[in-house]
Specification:
With 327 residues, the chain is of the alpha/beta class. The protein has a domain of 227 residues: Spore Coat Polysaccharide Biosynthesis Protein SpsA, Chain A.
Length: 327
Amino acid sequence: MVRHEPARAEPPSHPPHQPPGGATRSPRVQAGGEDPGPAVPPRAGTRPARRAGGAGRAPADGGAVQPSDASSSGVSIGAAVAINNADVANTAVLPAGTSVSAHGATIQAVMGAGAAVIVFARAPQPGRVKTRLVPRLGEWGAARLHRRLVRRTLRVAQAARCGSVELHGAQRARHAFFLQCARNLDITLRSQRGRDLGARMFNAVAAGLRRQHAVILVGTDCPALEARDLRRAARALAGGCDAVVAPAEDGGYPLIGLRRASPRLFERIAWGGPDVFARTAEELDRLGWRWRRLRTLWDVDRPSDLARLAALPLHLRLGNRREAGHM
């Protein structure tokens, strides 16, 4: 039985954090990536939240799932988050009548301990990123676009003020571009670790949820992602949802957040295929979890997407107005 979640007022978006006085900070680079650590045991007597008639699912829109092919970054079609098989019973629930401010301290107070935002990205190596766009942009042009999309996603994550922001790099986590992002934006840089995308996502968030009550993981191929999407995800998780997913038009998903997880969410999924979101939704229903579908977004994967990207206002393409003057 489908139960619809009530719509919530959206606070205004604010500019991203800038270090005071333009001071340059040293990047917080975590050598060796995630520490998998011991599994967190379930709290005694706790059970997954269930609703009568099956999973608590609340579609946010009726956008149809469209076929797609694999993203060159491997992230926009299935960036997922997970923790060990543990119940997180202490996640804060918004009290009735609580107003949500766009100021970081107030948002995080309302959301309990906050939600860590993890950005998955590949190193911007020419010829290895955005390969479907190479015929139109060339290898170096495609790599430059990839860099802009990564920077944009990091600034959107900071502007949301949901909690800490981490950049998880693949291929070369200590690439000069990643180090520059970590230093200029004062974020933590970590390495992706795992044999495939699903394993890397699980490992990243298993560690993240030992530090936070909830984790939201996003890819970098989605210029439609806004700070309000991250805030809405964080509020849903703080309000009792076990999971939130924002589907993509091509059948994947560029955002997923969890405060609990099962390995079943990441097994036997063809990452990059047209049914990543559908398979994940089916698994969430089978688990009986309370989850919410967020608004449908779109990715930049093919040459036809470039016109759509160019039609966006410059500050939306690049994350904020201030960034537009430096790209």
